Structure to design on (475 residues):
């Protein structure tokens, strides 16, 4: 058979061309869709459908989490009580030691306040905290986050700091109506500015892929004075976390060329978190125009 | 007991909804196990087996819609940079779909082998996508090739795959049509 130009039809080509075209169209469509998707969700933005989905799943997660914790508590506190007496004795001894240390710390704090008053140094503005329950963990294998039961209805905003009694947890990553997701400091995408409390060396704590307990201290010069067991506290820069909050302890510090590879043991156990505090930054006074 | 044909058709048409509910149930199961303090759950990829199953046994359009939706639901339950998870599972789905035209996994061993291969592929895909769309994913970390992760997801994924086959059977999903469509035409 001949076409309009007198050439012979190639039926094989005719059969495959539409399929190639469909594949190309679908590929271009999917890439465009993904580009729009990424753009629309940049910087923790959520739409109405996202809010609906998060609220729906968050509600279920809250109930499931309460059930799971209840079972875990029943086992730990009422059934599995081997070594409890021994642990209690150890804790009582530790408590006595800490009470002595606390009294000494209070003395130092008072002295510090007096000296700051004499030097007329401006104190950091007091921050407010909002308590929240942890209702679930990240549903993927590679990222480390937690979900809390406070959202935009409670004035939670993306970027707010999240802390626990044992130290820094992370910062708010995404906010829905009633729930928020927190990017913990153990996630590789997380960055928390810290200082070494003994030597005042500064660095950034970031997560390590695949670990839920270990982080790394980045950008540390090989000449910095950091040794195993040093305590890392938040620097207070950026006003996300109050200065001096515990972040973790140095696990090891090895020289690697011009920098030091510093392994950090996080002070917070992500899986033992039940309640957290969201740091609400102090509202800026209105400027007179 | 055999149902009338009209009821079978209704169940068949609701199959994508059941699939989505199945994934939500998996996410909730994961939440429950984590609240019990089971640390191995960290390494469980909830959607790996699902994306491969849908790729092998659904038409391109139906599978793509279901995969996009469930991966978005999962992304809303993760702190991954937006787009990483959706792109990851869409690529796995397309890979399984393209493979479906050549190799259709039906026996238990072939399903397990396929899941093992895709678990390894997933480990290579993650760091590349996360580096492209995120900020600081460690590209050359040994963790990316964790044997525990690969074995766990191949074995748990196999179980999920079998449950999905049962789900299709209970909802009278027209497997013949799905398989014929998969891989050889749109």
């Amino acid at each position: 058979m001949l076409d309009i130009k007198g050439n012979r039809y190639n039926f094989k080509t005719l059969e495959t061309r539409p399929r190639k075209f469909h594949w190309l169209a679908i590929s271009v469509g999917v890439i465009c869709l993904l580009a729009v998707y990424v753009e629309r969700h940049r910087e923790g933005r959520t739409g109405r459908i996202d809010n609906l989905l998060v609220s729906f799943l968050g509600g279920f997660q809250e109930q499931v989490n309460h059930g799971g914790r209840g079972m875990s508590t029943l086992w730990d506190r009422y059934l599995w009580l081997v070594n409890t007496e021994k642990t209690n004795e150890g804790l009582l001894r530790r408590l006595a030691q800490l009470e002595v240390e606390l009294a000494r710390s209070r003395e130092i704090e008072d002295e510090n306040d007096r000296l700051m008053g004499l030097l007329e140094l401006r104190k950091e503005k007091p921050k407010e905290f909002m308590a929240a329950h942890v209702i679930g963990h990240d549903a993927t294998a590679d990222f480390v986050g937690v979900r809390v039961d406070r959202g935009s209805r409670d004035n939670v905003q993306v970027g707010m700091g999240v802390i626990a009694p044992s130290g820094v947890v992370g910062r708010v990553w995404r906010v829905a109506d009633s729930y928020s997701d927190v990017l913990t400091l153990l996630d590789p995408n997380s960055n928390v500015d810290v200082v070494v409390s003994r030597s005042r060396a500064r660095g950034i704590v970031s997560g390590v892929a695949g670990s839920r307990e270990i982080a790394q201290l980045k950008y540390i010069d090989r000449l910095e004075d950091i040794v195993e067991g040093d305590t890392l506290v938040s620097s207070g820069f950026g006003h996300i976390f109050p200065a001096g909050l515990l972040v973790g302890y140095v696990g090891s510090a090895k020289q690697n060329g011009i920098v030091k590879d510093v392994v950090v043991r996080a002070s917070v156990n992500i899986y033992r978190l039940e309640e957290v505090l969201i740091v609400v930054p102090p509202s800026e006074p209105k400027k007179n125009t | 007991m055999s149902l009338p044909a009209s009821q079978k058709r209704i169940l068949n048409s609701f199959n994508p909804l059941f699939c989505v509910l199945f994934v939500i149930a998996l996410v909730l199961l994961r939440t429950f196990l984590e609240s019990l303090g089971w640390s191995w759950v960290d390494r469980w990829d909830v959607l790996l087996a699902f994306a491969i199953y849908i790729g092998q046994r659904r038409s391109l359009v139906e599978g793509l819609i279901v995969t996009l939706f469930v991966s978005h639901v999962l992304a809303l339950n993760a702190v991954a940079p937006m787009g990483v998870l959706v792109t990851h599972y869409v690529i796995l789905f397309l890979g399984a779909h393209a493979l479906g035209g050549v190799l259709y996994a039906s026996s238990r061993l072939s399903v397990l082998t396929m899941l093992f291969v895709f678990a390894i592929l997933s480990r290579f895909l993650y760091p590349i996508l996360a580096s492209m769309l995120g900020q600081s994913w460690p590209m050359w970390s040994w963790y990316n090739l964790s044997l525990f992760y690969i074995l766990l997801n191949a074995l748990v994924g196999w179980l999920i795959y079998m449950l999905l086959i049962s789900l299709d059977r209970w909802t009278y999903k027209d497997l013949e049509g799905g398989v014929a469509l998969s891989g050889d035409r749109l």
About this structure: Residues 84-119 of chain A form the longest helix (36 residues). The helical segments of chain A are 11-40, 48-79, 84-119. Chain A has three helices and twelve strands. Chain A touches chain B through 52 residues (CB under 8 Å).
